[in-house]
Structure formats: structure tokens, C-alpha cells
Write a structure and sequence with these properties.
The radius of gyration is 20 Å and the shape is globular. The protein is built from 12 helices and 16 strands. The C terminus is likely disordered. It is of the alpha/beta class and about 375 residues long. α1 runs parallel beside α2, α1 crosses α8 and α9 packs across α11. It has a 9-stranded mixed sheet with strand order 3-4-5-2-1-6-7-8-13, sandwiched between helices. A 3-stranded mixed sheet has the order 14-11-16. A hairpin with a 2-residue loop joins β3 and β4. Bound molecules: nicotinamide-adenine-dinucleotide. Nicotinamide-adenine-dinucleotide binds next to α1, β2, α5 and β7.
């Protein structure tokens, strides 16, 4: 059994990956400050993984799963805090088995917001990664999977985009991901023994097929799919399609959408590969390799779910590109991973989540621990 620390594990991708790791028999410790994640997500993960009830170990620390150490432990903490990180490494599970690997999801991810608040993005994304690397050094852990992004490639005409394409980010968010990738390459080169995977996600969407966990953005969603789901649920009036005059078959932007469960399974594979092979720095695109336009997505959502989505085509957004599709062959070659789920699966599962949880995790009446609700209301 491997013990894995998930930073940002209460968020969208982290919570789905947590479930995949628990189902694979691993033990998981999560550290999250709940700035964009919910403890309720992990309570539901523990239910889906049939771990049994939660118990409180210490203030703002909960654990689920029979026996010692717990299968899933949740700590409220900030990745920029050495003390919080030490707590996660030392007593995250209430046991002494130690952390074998880290999956680093914690971070800020809104491109537009990063342009208005660049220092906040550099602080959380880059300083957070520096503090994490220091903590891993203190605790003798050298296996890391990092959440990188296709945003790194900036605006490019290459279709599909291979990992060898030049990195030319065009916003602070993209620069922070590029900076952390560079830092991890420097760390790997400086000290033997590091096993690091840089996973460059394309457009993760959808939800667990149970409809129990999914994406729950704070405020107005920045990305198309959660926005579209909120329109379908009646929370937003209509979908804004940014640009109808792109050089694409129907004039709308083309993206590489991948089901979040495929992405979560990709993390499980990356961990297996890192642990099985000699130390290395692995850089992989995670995408489906297929492009779908905004209107393809709208039509698939309507057809799959029997709904009509009101939309309006508006001006292009600065910084968007016509087409962004992954060259996914390296991930298949290196880890035997490729996406299994279709656009229709994405639309069905995303709507199952949104329709059963129109306000996301807000309003949910059950939490891991009552005092956690008092300490950190989910609002
Ligand atoms: N969702 C996407 O489209 C996408 C695409 C490419 C890359 N990524 C990257 O993947 C990672 C996870 O994305 P997500 O969609 O799950 O986002 P998310 O916002 O749902 O999850 C991030 C989690 O990190 C937590 N967090 C934020 N700052 C923290 C801090 N200082 N200390 C501890 N926890 C903190 C949040 O509360 C949240 O639970 C991010 O690093 C993001 O940049 C996401």
C-alpha cells in the first residue's frame, strides 16, 4: 500500500483522483485550504470508496476508514505553510508509515483572474510549490506528480500539440505553471533520486458517473463546461460562445475535452510508472487527442440529456486560440494510458452531477465533522 499526499485534494480533479487511488488500495492524505474545494467532496469520496465513518483526530483533521492508519485523512492547511506541510507529512494519517508520493493539485487556475492578481498567482502556485519541495526534502520524499497545463503552449498553430512544442505562455497563470515545471527540472537535475511527472492537462470536464462528486466552481465559472451545466440548470440565462469566426469547421473554438475520470486514472498510471521505473522526469500531455468545437459540445449535451441550451455568439476573448488538441501518443507509449470515455459520457455524467447538485456542495447537510462546518463554512 502506497501512502499518497494530495495537495488540493478537495478540489475538482483532486477529489476524483482521490477516489481512484482509494479504489486502487492506496492510503490518501489530503491537505487543502478549502479556498476552492469542499470537505463535503471528500466525505462523498469516502462514501463512494466505502470507507466507513469519519472520525476527528485533532482540530481540523479528519480521517475515514477502518483500522490504523486511516485510509483517508483530511487536513485543513495551506501549501505555503511549512508547519501545515510538516503536519501533513508527520501525522497526516495518525500513523508513522510516511508519505511515499505527492500529487500536487493545489493552486489557482483562472486565467482572467491571474491577469488582475498576478502576485497572488505567483505566491500560491510558485511559492506554494517551493514550500512543498522543501517539505518533501525534509521528509525524504522524492516522488511527485505535478498538475501542469496545456496553457503553457500559448497560442500555436500546431495540431495536435506535442510535448516538444515551445512553451510560450501568454498570461500569469501560464507563466506560473512554466516556472514550476522549470523549477522541478532544476531540482531533478540537482539531486539524484527524483521521480517527477509533469502532466499537462488539456480540458478536463465531466464528473464521476454517480453524480455524487463533480466540479463546483466558486462564483461565475471561467470554463465552458461548468458554465454550460449551470445554464442547463437554470442558474445562468444563456451560454456565451466566444467567437464564431475562428478558422474552424463551424467557426467556434476547438478544444480537447477529457473526462475527469480518465484524467484521474492517468494520475494513477503516472504514479505506478514513477514507482516502477528508475528515477526520471516525465513530461506528458493528458488529452483525448480529439478536438470538439463549442457547438459540438452544446449539441452533444442537448442530445445526450434531452435539453435545449440557449446560447449567443459574442466577441472573441483576448488570449484564446482557434484550436488546442493534445498529441496524446507519448502518454500512451510511456504509460499505456489513453482516454476511454466519449463526449456523450462527459455530457451525461456532467449533467448527472449538476442536476443532482444544482448548487454544488453548498447546502449539503452532512460534513466530515461538525466543527469543520463552523471553522470553514462551505459557501
Ligand atoms: N481544471 C482545469 O481545467 C485544469 C487544467 C489544467 C491544469 N489544471 C491544474 O490542476 C490543478 C487542480 O485543478 P482543479 O480544476 O481541480 O482546481 P480546483 O480549484 O478545483 O482545486 C484546487 C484545490 O486546491 C486548493 N487550494 C488552493 N490554494 C491552496 C493553498 N494555498 N493551499 C492548499 N490548498 C489550496 C483549493 O481549495 C482546491 O480544493 C490546479 O493546479 C490547476 O492549475 C486544471
Amino acid at each position: 500500500m502506497t501512502t499518497v499526499l494530495l495537495t488540493g485534494g478537495a478540489g475538482f480533479i483532486g477529489s476524483h483522483t482521490c477516489l481512484v487511488l482509494l479504489e486502487a488500495g492506496h492510503r490518501v492524505v489530503v491537505i487543502d485550504d478549502f479556498s476552492n474545494g469542499s470537505p463535503e467532496a471528500l466525505r462523498r469520496v469516502s462514501e463512494l470508496a466505502r470507507l466507513g465513518s469519519w472520525r476527528q483526530l485533532a482540530p481540523e483533521q479528519w480521517a475515514a476508514g477502518e483500522g490504523q492508519p486511516a485510509r483517508l485523512t483530511l487536513l485543513k492547511g495551506d501549501v505555503r505553510s511549512p508547519q501545515d506541510l510538516d503536519r501533513a507529512f508527520e501525522d497526516g494519517g495518525g500513523g508513522d508509515s510516511g508519505i511515499d508520493a505527492v500529487l500536487h493539485f493545489a493552486g489557482l487556475k483562472a486565467v482572467g483572474e491571474s491577469m488582475g492578481q498576478p502576485l497572488r498567482y505567483w505566491d500560491v502556485n510558485v511559492v506554494g510549490a517551493v514550500r512543498l519541495l522543501e517539505a518533501m526534502g525534509r521528509h525524504g520524499c522524492q516522488t511527485l506528480v505535478f498538475s501542469s497545463s496545456a496553457t503553457l503552449y500559448g497560442i500555436t498553430d500546431r495540431v495536435p500539440i506535442p510535448e516538444t512544442a515551445p512553451l510560450q505562455p501568454i498570461n500569469p497563470y501560464g507563466y506560473t505553471k512554466a516556472a514550476v515545471e522549470r523549477m522541478l527540472a532544476d531540482v531533478a537535475a540537482s539531486t539524484p533520486g527524483w521521480r517527477i511527472a509533469l502532466l499537462r492537462y488539456f480540458n478536463p470536464v465531466g464528473a464521476h458517473p454517480s453524480g455524487r462528486i463533480g466540479e463546483d466552481p466558486n462564483g461565475r465559472p471561467n470554463n465552458l463546461f461548468p458554465f454550460l451545466c449551470q445554464v442547463a440548470a437554470g442558474r445562468r440565462q444563456q451560454l456565451e460562445v466566444f467567437g464564431g469566426d475562428w478558422p474552424t469547421p463551424d467557426g467556434t473554438g476547438v478544444r480537447d475535452y477529457l473526462h475527469v475520470m480518465d484524467l484521474a486514472e492517468g494520475h494513477g498510471r503516472a504514479l505506478e510508472v514513477l514507482q516502477a521505473e528508475p528515477p526520471q522526469l516525465l513530461t506528458l500531455n493528458l488529452g483525448s487527442g480529439c478536438g470538439h468545437s463549442v457547438l459540438d459540445l452544446v449539441r452533444s449535451f442537448e442530445a445526450t440529456n434531452g435539453l435545449t441550451l440557449p446560447y449567443a455568439v459574442v466577441d472573441r476573448r483576448p488570449g484564446d486560440s482557434a484550436i488546442s488538441v493534445a498529441d496524446h501518443r507519448e502518454a500512451e507509449r510511456r504509460m499505456g494510458w489513453r482516454t476511454k470515455r466519449s463526449l456523450a459520457d462527459i455530457c451525461r455524467d456532467g449533467w448527472a452531477w449538476q442536476s443532482a447538485n444544482p448548487e454544488g456542495y453548498r447546502g449539503s447537510d452532512r460534513q466530515p465533522g461538525r466543527s469543520l462546518i463552523q471553522a470553514q463554512p462551505v459557501s
